[in-house]
Amino acid sequence: MDILTNPFRTQLAEQAVPLGSWLMAGTPVTAEAMGCAGFDWLVLDMEHVPIDYQDAYHILQALGGTPAAPVLRLAWNDLVQVKRALDIGAQTLMFPFVENADEARRAVASTRYPQPGQAIAGTRGFAAMHRASRYGTLADYTGRANSAVFSIIQLETPAALAQLEEIAAVDGVDALFVGPGDLSAALGHLGNIAHPEVQAAIADAARRARALGKPIGIVGPNPEMVQTFIGYGYDFVAIASDMGMMMRQANAFISALKPALARSIDTGVY
Question: Which of 88, 137, 216, 232 meets the CB 3.0–4.6 Å disulfide criterion with 203?
């Protein structure tokens, strides 16, 4: 397979609803395990996880040996952060907290090399040697790199959702993504994405994006909620995170064993 063919774009074109999850542990081993588990795509989160670009480099290497397509969520819509993410080999980027079309336009521009005659005025800086170009061994990397990028724009507030059509219309915005956690906070229901007002906004975003033919994604905490989102019409979905799944299973094991542990203590049997 041509490594400049974006795997996430291919999934959206070929699969009904690609399923992903979030990588919050920040380790290559956990990322590799999640990549082998059967997820279609995985988000390497640099917004809320205390990892640097060297950590991200190694996590992308680990995911490279698995079937899962990596998506790197940036800490912010920042030119330098985008440049470094692309140079370490990320192809699909998620931009958090975009509020309007101008911010979306700036995000897309930062993913593109300046090229004569292209519609998007690219602002990505050039380096000859990095992982993305396989250290200079990929023929015509700079000529093909722009088309390999897939930009996902996150809408996380009512103000951003109000601008959905304008943001979706920006050249180079490949997909939208609703952030239900921050949206619930902005609507006055912090952490309660099941609140009817939050659910109504989530459903409306899917309806409007589908009317435009623009792919839209979302993340949910459990299978039931994710199934609801699929019913709303979301094109790609994620469930929970590596850390979330680990903690829930740990809590389930502990809860199941507590009665037996209590009896052991009562009888003096260990």
Answer: 232
